[in-house]
Amino acid sequence: MDNKVRRIGILAPPGNVAMERELPAHLPPGVVMNHNRLSRPGNAISRESLLAMAESLEQAAHDLAQAYPEVIVYGCTSGSFLEGIGNEARLAARITSRTGIPAVTTSTAVVEALQALGARRVFLITPYPDEVNEHELAFLKHFRMETVALESFRCPTSEDIRTISSDQVAELVLGNAAAIRDCDTIFISCTNLLTLDRIAMIEARSGRPVISSNQASLWAGLARMGVPMGGHYRRAAVPGRPRRKGRVIQRRGSRAMLSRRLLLAASAFAARPAGASEPFPTRPLRLIVPYAPGGSTDLLARMVAERIAPGLGQPVVVENRPGGGAIIGSEAAARAAPDGHTLLMATNGSHAINVGIFRSLPYDPLRDFAPVTIVASVPLVLVVAPGFPATTPQELVAYARTRPGQLSYGSAGTGASGHLAGEMLKRLAGIDMVHVPYRGDGPALVDVIGGRLAMNFANLPAAIGFIRAGTLRPLAVSAGSRTPALLDIPTLREAGIPEFEVDPWYGLMAPAGTPPAVIGRLQSLVAVALALPDVREQLAGLGAQPVGNSPAEFATVLRNDIARYVRVAKEAGIEAN
Fold first, then answer.
1. Which of 279, 300, 400, 405 has the lowest CB atom count within 10 Å?
2. Is 266 helix (H, G, I), strand (E, B) or coil?
């Protein structure tokens, strides 16, 4: 590590002695921690008091930033869980917006740490009353973690929490033999309950890895500064036995060392790819765009690259590799090393539609990629010329039924989203139209305006300028819900075609085998960026809607889209040339 002084800022509740006194002792050389207390109205612990404390975040973060920290951690476990899934990204975005400094919340840090351990069945220990515990249980469930047992001190006030000793926590954990036997990970959910030496003791006696909110918060801050974890911890050898090179030898009950599992978890949480000797990332990242520069995919990729680079501490370089219907760039990403340094801005075209229209692909969208998050969705809009006889989707369907095979619709090309949307409309509405493929939406829209084409399913960013100028009339959008850019325009579902939904997306993917901790960190950075007001404004200007979902949710969308588009392509006889 270089000699540069690096600063972590901690925003924590009043009386959080562990974060203020203990964590600094475990920082590596060259790293300092600044601390700022949050104000809590009264002493009672309740949903209202915790949310009120969160309201003081912006001013507290601004004050803390005067000490020039590089990363700010919101160290309040219960407060960052309370408003539901996604709230942690909004909290981090509020801090970053006010200070210009990357931020992470304890809940995000905890999830990353648990995912790094592969946690599935968790033994949860908290000091909180039941109304707060319910939110933590829901949070873990959202990330596919089962809480096999919950032990809570149910403290009504913060003063009560401060009276709980580490020995009491250890006794509570180790006294639950059944819960330990059934879980794979122990999670101590309070930043003030457990010292690191007690964690080592509990791990040694229980045989289970332990994650505490203190650990997670500290590791998150260090990982986001690119500081490796593990090497700076003191490890005590068993008396009378030599220390073996490359192996941690434990002495049960030692207060001077951490267990081997704890060190492995710390390394994983710092997002080291398996077998790597350095933390992630160690060099600039490459973000492959399998389309030409200037299009929607390229614009979104460059926005993501710009926004996540500061949190990674490395530049993210966009590399356009168009050709073959997005196959060339997608294959290059699939074959890259699974270490997080190569990413792909995928689309429903490259990873769902291509499965239906190509007889074979040099990559498997499900097997060869690890979903990170869907960045944004951009609906298609069904447009006609202002003088076209139909002014609503219902009138269009009725008009087409009286003229089978006489109306034409355009798209950005064979196998494009607009092509499949037109085929879905034909099948679901019982009409017959002729497809005319173009090289992009632009030429097709020009022909709609000129009366040479009846209609077009176009990407909203390509059509929005014509719509605002009055040279095209929008009839419907293809997504399952209305788009903010055209709130007065109905969906085709609302127009009486209940099964219709085509919702093109743009998503970040990594090669299969990329470590879960790396995936989680990238998803968190994108989610934080998507919560920023200027980013949302930028997306709205493109006609796009921010998403930022979890890797598991992205995988579900991908599987469903593949099934849908394979069926449509087969029924319509669509094959790529």
1. 405
2. helix
Residue 216's pLDDT is: 79
Nearest partner of 102 among 219, 279, 272, 224, judged by Cα = 224
Question: Letter for the amino acid at 470?
Answer: G
> Smallest Cα–Cα separation from 273: which of 309, 241, 228?
228
Q: Measured between alpha carbons, how far is 255 from 172 in angstroms, rounded to an integer? A: 19
> Is residue 402 packed enough to be buried (19+ CB in 10 Å), middle (13-18) or exposed (0-12)?
exposed
Separation of alpha carbons 386 and 467, rounded Å: 10
User: Cβ atoms within 10 A of the Cβ of 336, count?
Assistant: 18
Cα separation of 542 and 534, whole Å?
13
What are residue 556's phi and psi, to 5 degrees? -65, -45
Q: Residue 500 is which amino acid?
A: F
Please list the alpha-helical segments (H only) found in 117-245.
130-142, 158-162, 166-174, 177-182, 196-206, 213-224
* Separation CA 194–CA 198 (nearest Å): 7
Question: How many Cα atoms are found within 13 Å in the side-chain-facing hemisphere of 70?
Answer: 19
Q: Which residues pair with 318 in a beta bridge?
A: 287
Residue with tokens 């899934």: 85
Pair of tokens at residue 558:
């991908």
Q: pTM for this structure? A: 0.53
d(CA 114, CA 210): 9
Distance CA 124, CA 185 (A): 9
Q: Are 85 and 531 in contact (CB under 8 A)?
A: no
Picking from 196, 207, 192, the residue whose alpha carbon sits closest to that of residue 229 is 196
Q: Are the C-beta atoms of residues 144 and 552 closer than 8 Å to each other?
A: yes
73 DSSP β-pair partners: 10, 104
The pLDDT of residue 373 is: 95
Question: Checking DSSP bridges between strand 71-74 and strand 6-12, what pairing results, if any?
Answer: parallel
Q: Which of 299, 303, 576, 288 is nearest to 462 (CA)?
A: 299
Q: How many CB atoms lie within 10 A of CB 443?
A: 12
Cα torsion 401, 406, 411, 417: sign: positive
299-345 tens-digit pLDDT: 889 999 999 998 898 899 999 888 888 899 999 999 999 999 999 99
pLDDT > 90: what percent of the chain? 32
Per the CB < 8 A criterion, the answer to whether 455 and 410 are in contact is yes
Q: Is the peptide bond before 404 cis (omega within 30 degrees of 0)?
A: no
What is the bridge-based pairing of β-strands 369-377 and 505-511? antiparallel
- Helix count (H) and strand count (E) of the chain? 24, 19
d(CA 2, CA 20): 25
* DSSP 8-state code for residue 157: B
Q: How far from the centroid of its chain's Cα atoms is residue 395's Cα?
A: 41
404, two tokens: 């089978």
Tokens (6 digits) for 556: 């579900």
Strands 473-477 and 408-411: unpaired
Residue 426 has pLDDT above 90, yes or no: yes
